[in-house]
Amino acid sequence: GGVEVSIVGYPYDRRRIAWLHAEDIHRRYIEGRTAFLEDLEGSFAIMILDRNRRQCLVIIDPYKIFTLFHAALPDGRIIISDRIGEMTPHLPDVSIDRTAALEFFNFGFVLGDKTLLEEVRMFEPGRMYTIDDRLSLGGEAYWTFLDGEGNATANRLIDAFDTHVANGLRLSERISMPLTGGLDSRTVLSACMGAREKLHCYTHGRRSSDDVRIAGKIARRFGIRHDYYEIGSDIIEHIPEIARSMSLHCNGLLNTVTSAHFLSSYERESSYGDLFFSGIGGELLRSYYMPSGEEGGGTLEAFAGALRRKIQFGSDNGIYSGMSASEAAEILDGSVRAELSRYSTDDRRTLAECFYLENRIGNFLALSMRLLSRYFKTFNPFLEREMLRMIPRLPDALTSGGELQRRIILHNAPELARILMDRARIVDSSDSIALMKHLLQRPFVLARIYSNRLAGRRLFNFSFTDYDAWLKHRHREFVMETLDHGNMRLGRLFDRAGLEGLTRRFLDTRSNLLGFVTNIMSAEIFLDRLGEPGKRRPGA
């Protein structure tokens, strides 16, 4: 008695390879307090209320796939929830965090523990927090990315990856996973080929996309059960309603306007599996956030600026009230620099990977996992404690250009390497047939890529979606209504003429503004949903 445990997400015992439920955590906590942390793996946020010791513990998984939010009440009490919308009615006032808003507009995610509201913060990854009887909040890390020891080699990491995926395959007999034309899903599939009878794969998107074509070819070639979910009029015509309905579930941390296709695919796919294998984190194996060339060196300030430019959407930061575009860039550079300063390393590649792990994964990619947790348990093949600790100690040559993932595919299933990836990219250049296909097809792809770059806009669409066209041609009123300066919760952040000009440029010209505009729209929708009857309306 006196101890209560609640869990959001799906932890499992990484030694016994078995799911852990609240009663399992309760028993282990009673027997050995927090010693059970050594055995925890998976995606989870755990809260333990210990009335005997007059304290509350909050434990967040190492990757922040799941997290909780906290805020202080005027009387000193702390409110904790997995939904910001459930917290704001209890707060006397809420205000927009201007820096967080700038980050979200430009990057598609916030940095660190911020949310769009100044009064609400997130618990951070790999940490255990303690709230004592004086209601003071303190946290300590139980896992960090930089704690690895000894040499790391490609073979060691491949063995660790394969072992981790094999453990995931033991957790269910009915596994669902996305299959695309990219490197991440191909890498995961290569480690599952020996148990592909357990798999059901799916691809969603436009029928003409590379993803759909290549996934179908792989499924037919290797006898893998596979379905294609077209993003049709049943979704496209209802983008506004879907975006609004998803918004509070995502806590203002996801672009719900361009994610309207997610839930339909998850719901349809859930009839084929009870465990979802994600591709989150594959980019850590190829230093996705490392700026190229000379931008990868220099001072921390210069590196932060280079990293900011790498992750920033096409944007127009001259639209704010009382803030110039250069001032906005300085704020964003400062945000990135503040995050980089938290990591106890000077190595530039490792800094970029730390930043990716704690921000892109925990504050962006994880949102899709939280959405699909309504339908599946979740497993992340690229995220495992000991495997991740090898990454900072790998040679740079292995983590550039996808070399390490190519080695995993060739080690596990060389026959998978013979099928080209999207944009006619090649997995195994030593395969003469695959190389010939690559040499024949790649020039046409490159011509389209460089045409887009030279034009400064998307003349050719490589994506499996086309929200740019769908919004411009079918939902102009939705865009204009959401960005109507006079009625926006975010209105005070923007110069009216600047925002109206941005809206016109987006709707009436070809541009690279889709992400920036729909990020603003998604933030506005979230704040408006918080302001529905019975909920407090935040003002900027």
Automatic annotation (TrEMBL):
Signal peptide interval: none
Pathway(s) the chain acts in: Amino-acid biosynthesis; L-asparagine biosynthesis; L-asparagine from L-aspartate (L-Gln route): step 1/1
Reaction(s) catalysed (UniProt annotation): L-aspartate + L-glutamine + ATP + H2O = L-asparagine + L-glutamate + AMP + diphosphate + H(+)
An annotated GO BP: asparagine biosynthetic process
Domain Asparagine synthetase stretches: 159-283
Superkingdom of source: Bacteria
GO molecular-function terms, A-Z: asparagine synthase (glutamine-hydrolyzing) activity
EC number, as in UniProt: 6.3.5.4
Gene3D superfamilies per UniProt: Glutamine Phosphoribosylpyrophosphate, subunit 1, domain 1, HUPs
Protein name per its UniProtKB record: asparagine synthase (glutamine-hydrolyzing)
Organism: Eiseniibacteriota bacterium
